[in-house]
Fold Probable dual-specificity RNA methyltransferase RlmN.
Amino acid sequence: MSAPQPEGKTLPLVFEAPKGRGKPPRHLADLSMAERLEVAREAGLPAFRAKQLSTHYFGRLTDDPEQMTDLPAAQRAELVGTFLPPLMTPLRTMEADRGTTRKTLWKLFDGALVESVLMRYPDRATICVSSQAGCGMACPFCATGQGGLQRNMSTAEIVEQVLAGARALDRGEVPGGPGRVSNVVFMGMGEPLANYKAVVGAVRRLTDPAPDGLGMSARGVTVSTVGLVPRIRQLTEEGVPVTLALSLHAPDDELRNELVPINTRFSVAETVDAAFQYAEKTKRRVSIEYAMMRGINDQAWRADLLADVLYATGADWGWVHVNLIPLNPTPGSKWTASDPADEREFVRRLEARGIPTTVRDTRGREIDGACGQLAATEA
C-alpha cells in the first residue's frame, strides 16, 4: 500500500490549475438563452438567430454549418463563429463490446487531453464525461489522479462530450440503430465538485428543455464526488435533483485517508452525513461507489463496518444504494481487482443488513477502460 499522508498535510478545498493557460472560446452551451440573446445583440445580430443556432445545436444535433439552411448564407460563418466555435478535436476512438462501447480521447484548444466513454445497452445509452483535464485529488489507485490537475473544463467543453455522443447515436453510428442519450454520468477525468460552477452549468444545459438545452431528465444525470462536503451541501440547495454518487472506497478513516486523501479534510462520518442530507432534501437515493481492491478494502469485516457507517445516519428509509466496482487496474499497478469470492461475500454481508447492493457491469478493459489510461498513454 502507498504511504499515508504526512502528518499535518491537508489538501485545499479549491484546487487551482496551473496558471498561464488561456480560456476556452465562449460557446453557446456556456450561456443561458437570455445570455445568448444578449451576445447576439452585442454582435449586431438579430436576437432570434441565437434561438435558431440553439435549435440546431441542442434540438437537431447539427454540427455542419452547411445544414443550417435557415441561416442566411452571407451571415452563416459569422453566426457559427460567434456561437459555435470548435471546442475539441477527437484524437482517437477505441471500440469494445462489438462497437457498443466507444472511448474517445479529445484534444482541447490548449492541447489538454480528456476522455469520454459512450456505452450502449439494450435499454439505455450512457455517456461518461470528464469535468477536468487531469485531477487534483491524488487517489493512488486512479490513473487520472496520478497525473495531477491541468485545468478545469468549461461548461461547453463538458456539454460537447455529451453532444458528440448524442450525434453518433442519432446518426446510427453505434450498433443498434438510431438512438438517444438517456444517461450522463460525471465519472470521467476530474473531480466534478472541484469544478462546481461549470459542472452545474453543464447539468442545467443538459436538462433545460430544447432549444435552451438538451432536454434530458435530471434523473438521468449522475454527479460523482470523492467527498467535497461544502460542495455537496451547496448542491443540496441548488435545485437540480441529479443523482449523487459518493466515491467512498473505504468505511474507516485510517484506510480512506490513504485511498482518498481529501478524507484528511472531511471524515467518513462527515462525508456520509452530507450525502444523507442530500438524499433527504432531494428525495433522490445516493449511490455509494466502492472500488473493490484485493486485500486492501474488500475484507468481509469492512462490509460490516460500511453497513454500520450507513446506518449511523439514523435513516428509516432506503436512502442509499451501494455500487461495488471491480477495479479496472492500470498497467503495472499494484492495485488489482478483488477475488470474485471476496466480492460475493462483500455483497452478501451488505444485503444481509438490508442495503441494496450491485456490482457494476465493467466495460472497456481491452481499450484502457479506466479513467485517464488513454490520456496517460497518449501523453
